[in-house]
Amino acid sequence: MYYVNKSGVIIANKDSADYFLTIMPPDTSTGKVLYPVNEFYPNGKKKLMGTSVSNNCRALKFDGTCISYFSNGKRANMTTYKMGKFFGAFADYYPNGQLYYAGENYGKNIPRYIECRDSTGKILTENGNGKLVFYDNLFKDVETEGNIVDSLQEGEWQYFIHNKLITVIKYLKGEVESCVYYDTKGKTHTIIGYEVEPSYNGGLADFYKFLGNKIQYPDSDKRNNIQGKVLVTFVVEKDGTLSGVKALRYRSEGLAAEAVRAVKLSSPWVPGFQNGRPVRVQYTVPVSFTLNRDY
């Protein structure tokens, strides 16, 4: 038995585990070497059951049907895999046991949604036509909603974060026609391209101008004539806020701390986008400290 934390990392301490993992000897009855895999919540209730072509606890490759469960014992998800990749039918469920949505994926990485229902069982999508609604992991807030025709996105789709509209994407037969992002300051941004890097409002020139107005050169570094670049990394979240801001390379602790402080003040940015949808992106910028500059 292996002990696993919420990030999926194998740990040694049982008491710190979010769930337990077991891998049984292979089942060869199907003509394949498949290892039965089971996960359990700390209270002993089943969390997942499936089969893997690998018995490496850190690199499982599911094959066949995999079923996961909520902590209340209700089925949460049924997914079909082929050599570790989604391939075949899938279905998700509400915590009360009602069907959430169902569809299929046959290797194109584009799931085809066939059915969608609300938590009372009311049909929203049938035979690939109707409205799709996607909730957050806690089933509290709507994250995405829009219509599909023949299982393809059609018309305007809305994307929310904490019930606030941030993006409207217009689709035609599943292809993005236009994308508009609404930032936290009420400005609108037209997003063009399949993959778009995050950006500071006004671009990098304005970003460094902002830093020039905010940075306060540490007195001790001035006295010791310490200057140079601080490499700062951070994650631009889906709503443009910055997280995990830290210095990677620097000449002194003072310069590093000041660079991190100033970069944090630049939040929010315009997030990165992939196929019209906002995504989390790791970003790195150099912050220069020169004594001949007036901070």
Overview of this protein structure:
There is one protein chain. Helix content is 10%, strand content 48%. Strand 6 and strand 7 form a beta hairpin. The protein has a domain at 204-289: TolA/TonB C-terminal domain, CATH 3.30.2420.10. The strands form three sheets. The protein has a 17-stranded antiparallel beta sheet, with no helix packed on it. The chain contains three helices and 23 strands. The chain is mainly β.
Summarize the structure.
By secondary structure, the protein is mainly β.
CATH class of the domain at 204-289: Alpha Beta
- Strand-and-helix sequence, N→C? EEEEEEEEEEEEEEEEEEHHEEHEEE
Give the overall pLDDT as a whole number: 92
Oligomer: single chain
What structural category arises from helix and sheet content?
A: mainly beta
CATH architecture term of the domain at 204-289 = 2-Layer Sandwich
Largest sheet descriptor: 17 strands, antiparallel
Q: Kindly, what is the distance between the CA atoms of the first and last residues, rounded to a whole number of angstroms?
A: 57 Å
Look at the structure and name the CATH superfamily of the domain at 204-289. Answer: TonB
Topology-level CATH name of the domain at 204-289: TolA/TonB C-terminal domain
Helix fraction, binned, reads: under 10%
Q: What is the molecular shape?
A: globular
What is the number of beta strands?
23
Rg (C-alpha, Å): 24 Å
Unreliable segments (pLDDT under 50, ≥5 consecutive)? none
Strand content: over 45%
Number of helices: 3
